[in-house]
Structure formats: structure tokens, C-alpha cells
Design a protein that fits this description.
Blueprint: H1 2-21, E1 26-30, H2 35-46, E2 52-55, H3 59-69, E3 76-79, E4 82-85, H4 89-95
Parallel strand pairs: 1-2
Antiparallel strand pairs: 1-3, 3-4
Length: 100
């Protein structure tokens, strides 16, 4: 009985995390000649994350970043009103609801 309760609770937690990330829009801010940007792109592609790339060298992208993120830097992955700067695998997994 106890195993069933624990299994049910784990399933509910996984379902809740999945629902929080379902259909989530992901922005990827990058720039040319940026090695960490290549690493983040490879991570996103490897995990089949659908994202919208934005080159921070464009003025309108800089304006968006200034207004909604508060900084202009790369790489940045933004989703659900939160962002991760740089290539931080654990933080990216958490933001994007990816398992280990």
C-alpha cells in the first residue's frame, strides 16, 4: 500500500512539472564568435528543445533584453519569465524541466 502511495505521489509531481513546461516558449539569446553560445545551442539541440534564436547584435533584441531581462549578455536562455546566463547545465535542465 505504501509503495502505491509513493508511486502515485511521484507520478503527480512529474505530471505537475510536465504541465508547467508543456508548450513553454523558449528564447535563446546568442552572438557570433561566442563559444558558450555554441555549447548552449548544442545542449538545446541535443535535448530537442524548441527555441527561438535571437542575435543580441540587433538593436531590437537588445531593447527586449534590457526591458524584460535587465541585462544584455550571451548566451541567455529565457523561459517562463526566468533566465539562465551562460552554459550552466543544471540550471538549464531545471529551467527547461529536463531530467538528468
Amino acid at each position: 500500500m505504501r509503495r502505491l502511495v509513493i508511486a502515485t505521489m511521484l507520478a503527480l509531481v512529474a505530471q505537475e512539472a510536465s504541465a508547467q513546461c508543456a508548450g513553454t516558449h523558449v528564447n535563446f539569446f546568442w552572438q557570433h564568435n561566442c563559444i558558450p553560445c555554441r555549447d548552449v545551442k548544442a545542449f538545446l539541440d541535443q535535448h530537442r528543445v524548441r527555441y527561438e534564436p535571437h542575435n543580441i547584435e540587433h538593436r531590437n533584441v537588445q531593447d527586449y533584453m534590457r526591458q524584460y531581462i535587465g541585462i544584455i549578455a550571451s548566451p541567455i536562455v529565457e523561459s517562463k519569465g526566468q533566465h539562465v546566463e551562460g552554459y550552466k547545465e543544471g540550471d538549464l535542465r531545471h529551467l527547461l524541466c529536463l531530467s538528468r
